[in-house]
């Protein structure tokens, strides 16, 4: 007899600790949930920022109650790639938590491993320390 996995797949949201604050990027279809998270939304960077661990915990509880799987990333190295600033990387910017120029490259911290792999397919390389 075949078995079926009836457990609901929860969408993982990675929350990155960068420069003593916590960030994540996600598009929410639920306007009520977005309204609750709006105080943390940085419109200029299209991301959410929680300046303290207490605020991060509050947001994580809300996300968990709404069916998401929040995941803290303390060390973003494995999510960090670099790409030549002369290549097209707009799509990568939209799916990165943070980015900054470094000589003739752009360094990006991608929001998840799917986008790390996508970045590599688009010509980026993993950032070495």
Blueprint (SSEs and pairs):
Layout: E1 11-18, E2 21-24, H1 31-37, E3 41-42, E4 47-50, H2 53-65, E5 68-73, E6 80-84, H3 90-94, E7 96-102, E8 105-110, H4 113-121, E9 125-126
Parallel strand pairs: 1-5
Antiparallel strand pairs: 1-2, 2-4, 3-4, 6-8, 6-9, 7-8
Percent range of helical residues:
25-40%
> What is the second-level CATH architecture of the largest domain?
3-Layer(aba) Sandwich
Determine the structural class based on helices, strands and strand pairing. Answer: alpha+beta
Spatial sequence of strands, sheet with the most strands: 3-4-2-1-5
State the domain count. 2
Query: Strand tally, please?
Result: 9
Low-confidence blocks of residues: none
Q: What is the H/E order?
A: EEHEEHEEHEEHE
- The number of helical segments is 4
Average predicted confidence as pLDDT: 93
| Biggest beta sheet summary | 5 strands, mixed
Q: Could you characterize what this model shows?
A:
The protein is α+β, with helices and mostly antiparallel strands and 129 residues long. It folds into two domains: 11-73, MutS, DNA mismatch repair protein, domain I, CATH 3.40.1170; 76-126, no CATH class. Helix content is 26%, strand content 34%. It contains four helices and nine strands. The chain has a five-stranded mixed sheet with strand order 3-4-2-1-5, with helices on one face. Strands 7-8-6-9 form a four-stranded antiparallel sheet. A hairpin with a 2-residue loop joins strand 7 and strand 8 (105-110). It is elongated. It starts with 10 loop residues before the first strand and ends with a strand. The model has no long low-confidence stretch (mean pLDDT 93).
């Amino acid at each position: 007899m075949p078995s079926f996995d009836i457990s609901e797949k929860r969408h993982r949201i990675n929350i990155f600790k960068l420069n003593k604050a916590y960030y994540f990027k996600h598009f929410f279809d639920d306007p009520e949930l977005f309204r609750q998270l709006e105080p943390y939304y940085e419109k200029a960077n299209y991301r959410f920022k929680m300046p303290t661990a207490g605020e991060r915990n509050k947001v994580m509880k809300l996300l968990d109650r709404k069916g998401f799987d929040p995941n803290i990333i303390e060390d973003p190295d494995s999510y960090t790639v670099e790409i030549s600033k002369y290549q097209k990387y707009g799509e990568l910017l939209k799916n990165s938590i943070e980015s900054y120029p470094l000589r003739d490259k752009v360094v990006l911290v991608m929001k998840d491993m799917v986008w790390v792999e996508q970045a590599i397919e688009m010509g980026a390389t993993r950032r070495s320390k």
